[in-house]
Amino acid sequence: MGNWAELPYDLIVLIAKRFKLLKDFILFCSVCTTWRIAGTKEIYKVLPGPQVPLLMLADKDDDYREFYSLSGEKVSTIFLPEARKAECYSTKGWLCTVAYTIIGEMNLLHPFSRTQIQLPSEKDLWALQGYGPVEARGLYHCVDKAILSASPSITSDYVLLVSYYAGVNNLAFWRPGDLNWNVIDIIDEEWGAFSDINYYDGQFYGVTNGGDVWVFDIAGPNDPKPPIVEPRLLVHLEDDMFGQAGTEFYLVEVSGALLLVARFSHGGGSLTFKFKVVELDVIKGDIKEMKTLGDSAIFLGSNAGVSVDVSKLTGVKPNHVYFTDDWEEQFTEMEGGGGKDMGAYNLEDGKIESFYSELSLSPICPPTWVTPLFFPIKS
C-alpha cells in the first residue's frame, strides 16, 4: 500500500468535504499531518446538524489523547502532545490548557488542528493577588473554569474569562493583545465562591455557592471602551439547595433560555446522586423549576456547560444530564485521580446510568466533554 500522505492535496480535500459525522472527521484528521491540515485549513462551515460532545478521556502522560464517541461507542486516538500533563478546560471547541508545573504555562489549544494561542501563565494569576513564589502553594488545581465569549477559529474579537483560586475565589479575563490577565474585583463573602461561569446572550454570568447570580459585561479587544468591568449582582436566590456541602451549580443555555443546574452528592469527591434544573429569568431575576428538557441533553463537568437537541441523533438520550467528574479539590487525594463520578441522569425518573464502561482516571485531567466546532483555522 502506498503512502497515504502522498495523495494529491486536492483529492484529500475532496474526501474531507464528504464527511457528515464528527467522529469520521476526527478519524480523518488523525491519519497524518497532511490530512489534518487539509481538514482544517480549507473553507469549512460547521458540520451539518448538531454535534454530540466527545468525551476526552483522561491524561495518560503521553503524547496522545483518546476521544470517546457516544453515538459511535468508539474510541479514537489523536496525536496531541500539547495537552500532555495539562489541565484542560473545554470551551467553544477549544481547550484552555494549564501545564501542571510551578509556572503553570497556559494556552488556548484547538485539539484537532493543534493550533495554539499563548496566554499569560497561572503564575501571573497568582501575582494579581499579591502572592510571591508559587512553590508555596504546591501543585494543585488553581483554575477551575475557563469560558470563551466566541471561538478564536472565526474571530479575533473574543474574551476569555477564568475562575481560579488564589487564597480566595477570583475572576480574571484576557483578550487578544493583552499582555497580562485583567482582574475583576468581587467582594468575597461567606459562600461567595463561584461554582460556575458561562457566556449567554452577549454577557458572562456567574453563580456562587451561596445563590448569588452575577453578570459581567466585558468589552472585547475591538471595543474602544476601557477594560474596566463593573460586576452587577442580578439576583440572590433563596433556596435550601444553596450553601450545602457536596453541591455544585452550573449555568447552561437550553433552547435560548439560561438554566441553573444543581448537582448533589454526599460530599466533595463522593458520587453524584441527583440533579435539579431551574430556569433563570434574567429580566425578573427569579427561577422556575423545570421537570423536563424536552429533546435536549445537557453536558456538564469542568467544560463550559452545553446542550444539544438530540431528537435526530443516536447514542444520546433526551431529557438527560451527562456529567463528568469535576471535584478538583480531591483529584490529587483519590487513588488514581479523578474520573469515577460520571454518568447520565434521567430527569424523568431520577436514575443514573453509565455511558462509558471503562475506568479512565487522572489526578491532572480526568475525562471531560469537548464540543469541537470545525471552522477554518486562520493562518
UniProtKB/TrEMBL annotation:
Q: Which PANTHER family match?
A: OS07G0183000 PROTEIN-RELATED, UBIQUITIN-PROTEIN LIGASE
Determine the domain of life of the protein's source: Eukaryota
Q: Where is the KIB1-4 beta-propeller domain?
A: 67-346
| Pfam families assigned to the protein according to its UniProt record, in alphabetical order | Beta-prop_KIB1-4
**Gene for this chain:** LOC107059963
- The protein here is known as Ubiquitin-protein ligase
